[in-house]
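A further point concerns the way the authors explain their paired sequence and structure data. For illustration, here is how one protein appears when written out as sequence plus structure tokens:
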Amino acid sequence: MVITVFGLGFVGLTTALGFAHLGYQVYGVDANPERSRQIAGGELPFLEPGMDAVLQEHLGLNFFVVDDPKEAVARSEYIFYCVGTPYGEDGAADLTYLFQAMDTTIEAIEDEKFRVLVTKSTIPPGTTAEQIVPHVQKKGEACYRLGIANNPEFLREGKCWEDFLHADRIVLGCSDPISEEMLQKLYEPMGIPIFCVSPTTGEFIKYLSNTLLATLISYSNEMAEAADVFGDIDVAKAFRILHMDKRWGGCNMTSYVYPGCGYGGYCLPKDTCALHAQAKAKGYEPNILGEVISLNAKRFSVIAEKITKGLTKDSTIGILGLSFKPDSDDVRDTPAAKIIGLLQEQGYTRVLAYDPAAMEVFQRQYPQLCVQMAESAGQVCREADRIAILTAWEEFRESVAACTNPIIDCRYMLTAEEIGIPGTEGHVAKSQATTGGSHG
């Protein structure tokens, strides 16, 4: 079996290397020449534990990065699309990159071989039936030798490789029996439960998953804000006791039902907005989902107000954590950028930040934010007048344990006892807490 994967970001490269690991021949195509050069040179373009060794193992053996996809498409029976589907100002998903990749594929086909075009990019319910199929059908005779399907991903950044190899389910959204049979055969060696559904059901399952996680995060943040109003509540302890409820069934959902800075990263902001826009376009107003989006947008102002309370404009504010979650260097839609932006709009221009992995990419992504980067978390704790934890990196615990300056634990990774006062913000006396939430 031969596979071409368009898009070599977190999802695409994991997918490509995953199939190579299964023994298939895989070609990777990316529109970003710099990223292609990095991967072709054996270097991951992002932080993802364990995948650098996998890349080294398969690169040049049965995984190849190509600039011109024509030969790759000619050899392939499966074409996977893992390109970006960002959301615009109205929240709707932008399918430009997806259609460009599909057009490139169809233009490269010069034989009679049947191929299945598989959208792994996250797309709103109804997109395959209402937009992709008509788009492909306009391309002429080639469309009659093509199957069209979707195969949503459920990868967590920082654990992509583990989630691919040990997925709890594989969803195939197919409308023709040939594509369904081909995709089942492709995934069969993994021994993972496969669910064949309609294309619209497949699209919906992905959004059902991500919007639920976004809702749980925002609910938790709302409850944390309510707790601040009530007063005399140990928020961290309250949520940890909540997690002991046997109805959770031992599943690892606790990091989502936990307050923090607001959800960020690539998937949750994009997918909540896209599903909301799609429902509205169909004539239905999803009020809870709208409130989830609204609450998340307001969360950054709430955090900024906590950080600046009682500070003068010439104070130095220390920021611990820039990535949207620990064990990742992803800063797309990261709460840290929004919070720092609000601080600087309010006149707090002296910002000293540290992140174990994301400082360089943060500076590239947000050049408009004037942030001084520290050499260590310890430097931030020593030199800042007040320190805010914006990402729950485990390594911050040692530094804050010795810190004598006030700390605002925006990720609730420290208990009230560790901080030394009732509540979750103030002077840190010691730090031996168990891990708190990392997503919210």
The longest strand covers residues 2-6. The mean pLDDT is 91. The CA atoms of residues 42 and 56 lie 6 Å apart. The radius of gyration is 23 Å.
